[in-house]
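Data card: per-record layout.
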Amino acid sequence: MFDKLKLMKQAMDLQKKMQTIIIEKESHGIFIKVNGKQEILDVQIKDESLLSKKSTLEYSFKEAVNEALKQIQKETATQMQGDLGGLF
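The structure for this 88-residue chain is written out next.
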């Protein structure tokens, strides 16, 4: 019983920690800020020329989001590896 409670507390602590991991990525003229729960916190169009061509903006946005998500996944995995190392 206590083991389950301990695991539940550890899981909750890890979720809180994931929310505090934040990366900022600028790619293809778009700035993206993402947390460890893979929630997009901020988006900014840095390259004003993207506003004039819809298809270029859509492509750039997709690429920037994908790169930011890849980076946050790596960062989260690295930080969580030490925390989860004792569990498995």
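Known properties of this structure: Residues 54-84 form the longest helix (31 residues). The chain has a mean pLDDT of 88.

See the next section for split statistics.
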